[in-house]
Design brief:
With 274 residues, this protein is mainly alpha-helical. 88% of the residues lie in helices and 0% in strands. The chain is built from ten helices and no strands. Helix 3 packs across helix 9. The longest helix is centred in the first third of the chain and has 49 residues. 27% of the residues are buried.
Length: 274
C-alpha cells in the first residue's frame, strides 16, 4: 500500500514539472512564430490597403511567389554565400580559440595581444573591406578573409573568459593530483568554457555572414549580396527582398547548426562526466 501511495505521489510530483517543461517549450515556439505571423499579416494588409507600389515595398505574398518561381536562381546565389560564410566562420573559430589559449596560458601574450585586439575592434570594419579587395583580389579569398577578420573577435573574448573562469579550487586539486596541463585543459578548462565558446560562436556566425555580404557588395559576380546590389540598382525591390529572405534562411540554417553542435557537445560531456 505504501509503495502504491509513493508511486502515485511521485507521479503527481513529476507530472507538473514535465507539463511545465512542455509548456515552456511550446511557448518558445508558439510566441516567436505568432509574432512573425502577426508582422507578416500586418505587412500584407498595409501594402494592400494603402496600395503601396511593389518598387517601394512588395507584399509578403509577392515575395513568396517570386521565391517559389525563381528558386533556382536564388539557390545558385545562395550556395557561394553560404559556403564562404561557413568557411569564414570555421577559420574564425579556429583562430579565436587558438588566440584564447595563447592569452590564457601566456601572461606576456595577454598583455601584448588583448589591447591590440580591442583597438582593431574599434576600427569600422566596412572601411577596411576595400583594402582586403586590394590585398587579396576580387575572388572568394578576400571575402573569406574579411569574414574571418570581423568574426574571430567574439570567439576570442568569450573563449578567454571561459578558460579564465574555471574555479581556482578545482585547478589546485588537479595540480595536487599531478595532472598535466593538457589533462587540465581537456578535462577541466575546455568543458567548463563550452557555454562561453558557443556564445561566442553564435555571435561569430552572424558576423561571418555579414563579412561575406559586405565583400559581395563591393566585388562579386555571384552570391546573395551581389544579387541584392544588382536588383537594387535596377529598382527591383521584389528581387532584393526575396534575396534578403533567402539570406535569412541561410543564416538561420548556419545558426541552427551551431545550436545543434552545442547540444551534442553538452550531451557528450555530460555523459562523459557520468
Amino acid at each position: 500500500m505504501a509503495a502504491t501511495i509513493g508511486t502515485e505521489t511521485g507521479a503527481v510530483l513529476v507530472n507538473p514539472a514535465a507539463r511545465n517543461r512542455a509548456a515552456a517549450g511550446l511557448r518558445s515556439i508558439v510566441l516567436p512564430l505568432g509574432l512573425a505571423l502577426f508582422v507578416l499579416v500586418a505587412w500584407q494588409t498595409y501594402v494592400t490597403v494603402a496600395n503601396i507600389p511593389s518598387v517601394i515595398l512588395p507584399s509578403p505574398i509577392s515575395i513568396a511567389k517570386y521565391i517559389v518561381a525563381r528558386y533556382d536562381i536564388l539557390l545558385i546565389h545562395a550556395i557561394p554565400t553560404t559556403v564562404e560564410s561557413a568557411v569564414g566562420f570555421l577559420l574564425a573559430l579556429a583562430l579565436g580559440v587558438l588566440l584564447a589559449i595563447l592569452i590564457t596560458y601566456s601572461e606576456v601574450a595577454r598583455e601584448a595581444l588583448y589591447p591590440n585586439l580591442v583597438f582593431f575592434q574599434l576600427i569600422p570594419k566596412i572601411a577596411l573591406a576595400p583594402l582586403f579587395i586590394i590585398w587579396l583580389g576580387i575572388g572568394s579569398t578576400s571575402r573569406i578573409a574579411f569574414s574571418v577578420f570581423i568574426a574571430f573577435f567574439p570567439v576570442v573574448i568569450a573563449t578567454t573568459a571561459g578558460f579564465l573562469s574555471v574555479d581556482k579550487g578545482i585547478l589546485r586539486l588537479c595540480r595536487s593530483l599531478t595532472a598535466t596541463e593538457w589533462q587540465v585543459f581537456t578535462s577541466v578548462r575546455f568543458p567548463s568554457a563550452l557555454p562561453h565558446i558557443f556564445s561566442g560562436m553564435k555571435i561569430a556566425i552572424t558576423l561571418a555572414i555579414i563579412g561575406v555580404i559586405i565583400g559581395e557588395f563591393i566585388t562579386a559576380q555571384a552570391g546573395l549580396g551581389y544579387l541584392i546590389i544588382f536588383a537594387t540598382a535596377r529598382a527591383d525591390t521584389e528581387v532584393s527582398m526575396a534575396a534578403i529572405v533567402v539570406l535569412c534562411i541561410c543564416g538561420l540554417l548556419l545558426y541552427g547548426l551551431v545550436a545543434v553542435a552545442e547540444m551534442i557537445a553538452n550531451r557528450f560531456y555530460s555523459a562523459d562526466s557520468r
